[in-house]
Amino acid sequence: MRAVGFHEPLPIDNPSSLLDLVVDVPTIFGREILVEIKTIAVNPFEYKLRLHPGKFTAPKILGFDAASVVAALGPGVSLFKVGDEVYYMGGATGHGSNAEYQAVDERLVALKPTSLSFPEAAGFAYDSIFNRLGVSKNDPAVNKPATKKSVLILNGAGGVGSIAIQLLKELTDATVVATASRPQSSVWVAQLGADYVVNHGEDIPQQLAAIGIP
Hints:
Strand order of the largest sheet: 7-3-5-6-8
Keywords: NADP
Organism: Aphanomyces euteiches
Strand content: 25-35%
Largest sheet: 5 strands, antiparallel
Protein name: Alcohol dehydrogenase-like N-terminal domain-containing protein
Radius of gyration: 21 Å
Oligomer: single chain
Mean pLDDT: 88
Order of helices and strands: EEEHEEEEEHEHEHEH
CATH class of the largest domain: Alpha Beta
CATH architecture of the largest domain: Alpha-Beta Complex
Shape: elongated
Distance between the termini: 57 Å
């Protein structure tokens, strides 16, 4: 299969820093699924991993975020079937998603929403996973039955912030305050479900006090 990777960490202006490669299709084991990559997204971890990959077997193929179609199943797979459209943020071990195929543990994978295209789903993976790790329906810091909580989301119109607003409104009873500076961003953040929108270009504590949030 075709892939993009490197044999050693080099400055990005070196012609060998990223190479077009031909490598074997990964063999899958246990709960791994083999996916055919449709779209990838560039993850901020990748440039760091390219410069400081640690111990690895060359060539190293980068890539965390992808939207794909399940091509084959390991013997322990129970969550997916061949042909499923999926998206994920993979791990740092093994070959990454900058290739035609990738082996991924099914526990890192989710079905792609039918409302999202492959490019949209690939770009959605990083922000959504980090939010889901931080927002839980049973998180006592957010959703104590006897205490009404308020959550301030900085940069509510950004990737992480916009998803956090929706998760908090869906999974908790918290009052959600988000920041935005442009008029169109403020309108969009409110449409996502923020109870209040404040301007992060102005005095935030003063604005919070004005709406009764300590």
